[in-house]
Amino acid sequence: MKLQLADFLLCNLGVCRIVLLLSVCFVSDQLAHSQDVLTYHNDIARTGQNLNEAILTPENVKSSTFGKLFTLNVDGKVDAQPLYATGIAIAGKGKHNVLIVVTEHGSAYAFDADTGVVLWKVSTLKSGETPSDPRDCDQVAPEIGITSTPVIDRSSGPGGAIYLVAMSRNSAGNYHQRLHALDLSKGTELFNGPKEIQATYRGTGDNSSNGQVVFDPKQYKERPGLLLLSGSVYTAWGSHCDIRPYTGWIIAYDKTTLEQTRVLNVTPNGREGGIWMSQAGLAADSAGNIYALDGNGTFDTKLNANGFPSKGDYGNAFLKISTAGRLAVADYFEMKNQSRENISDADLGSGGALVLPDRKDGSGDRRRLAVGAGKDGNLYLVNRDSMGKFSTKANNIYQQISGALSGGVFAMPAYFNSRIYYGPVGQPILVFQFFNAKLRIAPVSQTTTRFDYPGTTPSISANGRTNGIVWAAENANPGVLHAYNASTMKELYNSNQAADNRDHFGAGNKFVPPTIANGKVYVGTTTGVGVFGLLSNDSMAPPPAPHPSSRVKN
């Protein structure tokens, strides 16, 4: 909103004052919302950037001035990234900056992000239900409730909506996967939810009957972060370990009705090919295409006239999925040694995809790119307009840096200032620089810290292009929060530096990236969330206890 000179000439003083006041309020509201982290890794491209962080700088992020403020204790593991929404009107409690935390016990919490007070808490379990058991797999244990990062839409419902998927088991031993839409202001169900997740898809692959592959809720977990795109909520499904039968599903729902709108199976006539990506969310570009890295599974080496697998099976592929009309694979890249990677479980599907800003090459041509990596240790940079498809003779890809991430990737990178930040297993965070729309082969910088399994997914805070800080959580006991100068990768802070264990915040957890907003950093653990920020005389005081009336049950 802009007040023009003509507005001053055509209105009296009182009206102008109102217009000016509205202008100031509009700008303030926009600045406040710029701190929101409403989806996995900050945006649908999954860059991990908060470029509106004006409080935290490389100068004040050090153990003498920065540290743990408090911890938020919850009733189960926090496997999902905490989400942050500014200035939410909470029913009966006024406006708050809100932190949304979900747990494997099937609970969703809204905390005051600045004080830690519980604003509301709800359970997604129905009467007589419990969270799912681990399904003979140790990947999510000891229980499975809400695993994936939810997504928030501030414009849905009366006060905004939180979309999440929860798994449960009833007393008869039946398993359920349900899509919930919770009112951001009070935690109650919206849109006649929750919606039971069921699906079929034409095919003869694992768990098929009468020419239809059937989605069996007990065989899957929703690990990738949810994607909200053009009015639809997209879910993607991985298996429990590699326990068959399972195939690769993407299932979409209307955000206002929770009705299922579209289904895609990427291994409908084969097996496996689950989508899990170490919890990274499905990525998307501005044209509405979705990008995902598929796990080990059937790939049809017999191609049709357009170069696509003849039976529609895309195991171990870098996928571009069109959302125009029905869901369909619009393009893909598959490495020439896919059979060996599938057999040895060295697949691409352990990493997440990142959609990059458009870049110009040395000839001035615009390149639309995406990057991904998995267990084979190679860095794959694809041209989103022509991804390369499959050949037994060569990897027809825009750029491949073989062995660049030799520890393997169980994470996803972050992007900032023409650089990509990767945290492979057992290696430092490695920084790759763009030049003429390609990456320099050797890292231009790296940390002195090495990150054991699963490596780390970095997040970035900055004020525009300045004051860049790389944040990374180390999966250790106790967990460690690290902060590095984004330009030099010199360590600024870690949570083991202060005396007397001042900044310890609990046992670390795998796959969870830090959330940075409004001068604070939020890190999920196996028991809650550590909250970090600039220290003050009263910063060590515990948050006040929540009032019993703040707890709501569904």
Short characterization:
With 554 residues, the protein is mainly beta.
**What is the arithmetic mean of pLDDT?**
92
The CATH topology name reads Methanol Dehydrogenase, Chain A
Low-confidence stretches: 1-31, 538-554
Distance between the termini: 41 Å
CATH class value: Mainly Beta
Description:
With 554 residues, the protein is mainly β. It is built from 3 helices and 41 strands. The strands form 10 sheets. Strands 1-35-36-37-38 form a 5-stranded mixed β-sheet, with no helix packed on it. Strands 7, 8, 9, 10 and 11 form a 5-stranded antiparallel β-sheet that branches. Strand 20 and strand 21 form a beta hairpin. The protein is globular, with a radius of gyration of 23 Å. The N terminus and C terminus are likely disordered.
Question: Keywords, please?
Answer:
554 residues; mainly beta; Methanol Dehydrogenase, Chain A; five-stranded mixed β-sheet; globular
